[in-house]
Amino acid sequence: MAKTDDVSDRGARVDARPPVSARETPAAARWAMYIGVAILFAIACGFLSHWQFSRNAERTEQLELVANNYDQPAVPLETLLAPGATLDPADEWRPVRLEGRYLPEDQLLVRNRAHGGSAAYEQLVPFQLNDGRTFLVDRGWLAPGDRQSLPDEIPAPPPGDVTVEVRLRPEEAAPTSGRSAEAGQVPTINLGLVAEQTGPIEPGAYGLLVSESPAPATAPQPVDPPSDDPGPYLSYAIQWILFAVMGFAFIGYVIVNERRLRREGDDDDEELPAPAREKAPTERRRVDPVALHRSRKRPRDRDADDEDALLDAR
């Protein structure tokens, strides 16, 4: 029974050994781990920086396209868009000339358009060309009404034969959420959704109104030209690169600071008395300065020793 207790005690002593702390891990292993974390962080920053550079390149192409096409002279529609053809992305924003008449009985409103600081509407009116095709024209935006969400007034397009100048725009995507709109409205300028209510229209593009001749007495507000702001993408890309560099700089600071503390611990270890050095483990370790101060041998008080001797003699 005694042997069993002895074995149990030895097992308990073995199991009670404290786990290896991070400070007891070899310095080279810790530093390798630090550098590995910095490399992973730099790789993530590199991907994010590349993504921002890509977005900046796309934005630059858009600005160049607008600058090259926006103020070009108007040409007949068939010059840039053949019947049933899809709009060439290089021709976006190019002005074209339409001749024919509006079909006001098929006009629609696009809801939730951001204009004038409100959820405004845009007026879509099919335009029948002299060659028989029907082309969709966005005449501009209308503010919501004073007492209701719908505009107080929807200006009628000019009747009869009209010459219209528009800028070519590609259709917008249909809502992925499947949201719909009331009759006479559409959620986006998607030509498929528009054709469901107006009948067949040219599927390649729609036109953003520039001018009408003859000009009507009242008309919607013109849609603002596209912004020439390049966006924050380039600055964000540079910031991610700087973050990667800062990660390596921080790891370098941690390693240098740890080496400095280790050297200070080694210097304190050399100041220990000889018995303390003999008891110290062979593996070099940093000594706590407070513990070192307490472990140093203090000078004896001779007066106290004399008093103890007198007391013993009595």
TrEMBL record:
Main location: membrane
Biased composition (Basic and acidic residues): 1-16, 276-288
GO CC terms: plasma membrane
Claim: Repressor is one of the keywords in the record: no
Subcellular location: Cell membrane; Membrane
Comp. bias intervals (Acidic residues): 304-314
Keywords: Cell membrane, Membrane, Transmembrane, Transmembrane helix
CDD domains xref list: SURF1
Chain ranges passing through the membrane: 31-51, 233-256
Compositional bias segments (type: Pro residues): 217-228
PROSITE patterns: SURF1 (PS50895)
Region of interest: Disordered: 1-20, 204-228, 263-314
Keyword Membrane (UniProt): yes
Membrane topology term: Multi-pass membrane protein
Record-linked PANTHER family: SURFEIT LOCUS PROTEIN, SURFEIT LOCUS PROTEIN 1
Family to which this protein belongs: Belongs to the SURF1 family.
Name of the protein in question: SURF1-like protein
